[in-house]
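Chain A, query sequence.
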Amino acid sequence: MHLKQYYLGCLAHASYMIADERTGLAAVVDPQRDIDQYIADAEANGWKIQYVFLTHFHADFLAGHIELREKTGAHIYLGDRADAEYDFNAVKDGDVVEFGDVRMTVLETPGHTPEGISILVYDLKASDTQPHSVLTGDTLFIGDVGRPDLLASIGVTADELADMLYDSVNRLKELPDATLVYPAHGAGSMCGKSLSKETVSTIGEQKKFNYALQPMSRTEFMALVTADQPEAPDYFVHDAILNRKDRSSLDETLQKSLKPLSVDDVLRLQNSGAQVVDVRDAADYEGAHLRNATNIALDGKYATWCGTVLSQDRPIVVVAESGGEEEAVTRLGRIGFDNVVGFLGGGMGSVGNRLDILARTERITAATLADQVESGVVAMVVDVRTEKEWQAGHVDGSVNIPLNHLVDRVGELPQETPFVVHCEGGYRSAIAASLLEQAGFDNVVDLVGGFKAWKAHQLPEGETATTGCMAQMA
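Chain A, predicted structure.
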């Protein structure tokens, strides 16, 4: 038996391929949408991918089950409670898929979602009674469990799922301590609140160190796993629904989307309502960019923030460094944003000296900002990190408007006098500045290096207080 983990850092997503050397058959579990790596490994080893499992309908990415079906003829397997448009094999508790020396036994483990399953993997050459590992999807993470609050908008309450999760977690605790735990996500995922950076553990280790696996009553567990969950991006519901649908493949999307456009084509589309997303680094974007473009750099949590601030219903045009267009479109496709209509051919170099369509964003260093705050030149410092981050430490006198709420709260910001936006290191504040430009603000300045730079200069930090501009200004 061969078991390989594939880890996609930008989405903190783990997928798996389990192959049997004797029969040459393989299964892929929770694949990402761009499937070339699974195909390449299978071809290199002479394996045929015959099975593709989804442990549940993922909300934070669009899975590659349709792509694998189209490319390899693999059969799709879902939990018995799943409802999907495409043909699939429904597996219930105790069902077995066996090929050669590999046995995959299904455990129904609802809680993150109603249809959630885990998969016990046996290497039959080693033992047919002791599992080698358990692929836990989003039911059990390293250091955490799957959040039960993502499906309220489609009819399942957090309490109902937390009740199911309690039973599922306790069932997983009964597995042998040596059983390897392979989850579908690691640190950085919003499918839980305190996921470890580790990507593999054992049942025994999790029983010792995972807060959610400690002895407690059902009521205590339900309260614990529903509390203090991070706010989920709007696209999560979109993806959870799209993973049920028989949709276009990523190859079809890329063929449609990777079209070079002239500057005039881009402007015409923008004037008709298209979203222009500039994926260059913040410094390059702020030096010069197309007016009213949204900056979401590839070097960061690109997909998460695209899913948060862009719309699935309006066309998208990409502006990238030459050669970066395919990565930008592929990563949008990973979260089900198939509405890209092209990219600026030649990148910003094609704009030339057309200053009338260009804008720039002012930047400021921490030391200069401190001087300007003291002298009253800067009207306000706006921290676009989460409230939890702001509470842990912030620029003295700053106000907190998390980035995902910024557009809805622009009425709290000064229209005339300069104000500064910042985040932890500069990634989110560049997004914020671009959104504010689109909202009509031309008085926004971005703090270079964010709060990290402020701390590095040992500049004044504020007391913990009520967040929000109105509270600060009162």
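The chain is about 30% helix and 20% strand. Residues 122 and 131 are 5 Å apart (CA to CA).
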